[in-house]
Write a structure and sequence with these properties.
The chain is α+β, with helices and mostly antiparallel strands. It has two helices and 20 strands. Strands 7, 8, 11, 15, 16, 17 and 18 form a seven-stranded antiparallel β-sheet that branches. Helix 1 (2-26) runs antiparallel to helix 2 (226-260). The longest helix is centred in the C-terminal third of the chain and has 35 residues, at 226-260. Belongs to the flagella basal body rod proteins family.
C-alpha cells in the first residue's frame, strides 16, 4: 500500500522541519543570526487516467483525471535575511550594520568570509579581529596607547594618541553585499561564504550606494521571533502526528485485507 510510503515521507519532512525550527530557537541570542525556514515540494505523481484523454469516437474528453501522489520532499531551507533588532552594548568595538552589507573577515586559510556579527576585539598586535581571532578585512591596527576609539557611520576608525589633540585615523571598515543573500553558504561561527548562487560581492563604503550605516556600541540580534517559531513548532508536531496516524490506519487496512485470505 503506497499510503505507508507517502505518510513516511510526510513524517521525515516534518522531522526536518522541527530540526530547522529547533536551530532557530537555539540561536535566538546569537548575534547576527538569520533564521531559516523549511520549504517543501510534492513528489512525482502516478497517472492512472490522464486529464484530457478522449473517451469516445465523438471526441469527448476526461474533465478530471486520476493522479496518485507519492509524498513530499524538502526543497530548500533558505535563510530569511531581514534586519534583526539593534541593541546597545556600550562596548566601543561593537559595531552593528543597519541596512545592507556584511563585514569582510579574512580566514586563516586565505578565504574571505562575511558576517553580520560586529563584536570585534583587538589581538596582541592591536589588529581588529573577531571573537575567534580572525582578522577583519581590510586590516585595521589600533595602537595600544590609543584612547577614545570612535567608529563613525561610514566605518572610519579613529582615536587619540598621547601628546596629540586631534584624532588619528587608523583605517576604515568596508561592507560587502550580494545580489542573492540567501545564496550564501553558512560556515558556522556567524560566518558566510560566497557561492555561485550568491553572486560576487559588491564591496564599498558604509552609507554609500545602498550600503547600510554602522552603529558603534551596538550589535544586531537574531531575527528570530519566538512566538512564530513556537507556533510553527506546534504545527509541525501536529502534522507529524497526523502522518503517523495515516501509517497506523494503512497498517490496519493491510491487516484486514490479509485476514480475508486466511
Amino acid at each position: 500500500m503506497r499510503a505507508l510510503n507517502t505518510a513516511a515521507t510526510g513524517m521525515m519532512a516534518q522531522e526536518l522541519n522541527v530540526e530547522v525550527i529547533s536551530n532557530n530557537i537555539a540561536n535566538m541570542r546569537t548575534t547576527g543570526y538569520k533564521r531559516q525556514r523549511a520549504e517543501f515540494q510534492d513528489l512525482l505523481y502516478e497517472t492512472e487516467r490522464r486529464v484530457g484523454s478522449t473517451t469516445s469516437d465523438q471526441g469527448t474528453m476526461v474533465p478530471a483525471g486520476i493522479q496518485i501522489g507519492s509524498g513530499v520532499r524538502t526543497a530548500a531551507t533558505p535563510r530569511v535575511m531581514s534586519q534583526g533588532d539593534v541593541t546597545q552594548t556600550q562596548k566601543e568595538l561593537d559595531v552593528a550594520v543597519r541596512g545592507e552589507g556584511y563585514f569582510r573577515i579574512q580566514l586563516p586559510d586565505g578565504r574571505t568570509a562575511y558576517t553580520r556579527d560586529g563584536s570585534f576585539e583587538r589581538d596582541a598586535q592591536g589588529q581588529l579581529v573577531t571573537a575567534d581571532g580572525y582578522v577583519v578585512d581590510p586590516g585595521i591596527t589600533i595602537p595600544e596607547n590609543a584612547s577614545g576609539i570612535t567608529i563613525n557611520p561610514q566605518g572610519v576608525v579613529s582615536g587619540t594618541l598621547p601628546g596629540q589633540t586631534a584624532p588619528t585615523e587608523f583605517g576604515q571598515l568596508q561592507l560587502s553585499r550580494f545580489v542573492n543573500k540567501t545564496g550564501l553558504e553558512a560556515l558556522g561561527d556567524n560566518l558566510f561564504l560566497e557561492t555561485a548562487a550568491s553572486g560576487q560581492p559588491q564591496t564599498g563604503t558604509a552609507g554609500i550606494d545602498g550600503m547600510g550605516n554602522l552603529l558603534q556600541g551596538y550589535l544586531e540580534q537574531a531575527n528570530v521571533n519566538s512566538v512564530s517559531e513556537i507556533s510553527d513548532l506546534i504545527a509541525a508536531q501536529r502534522a507529524y502526528e497526523m502522518n503517523s496516524k495515516v501509517v497506523s490506519a494503512a497498517d490496519q487496512m493491510l491487516q484486514s485485507a490479509t485476514g480475508m485470505f486466511r
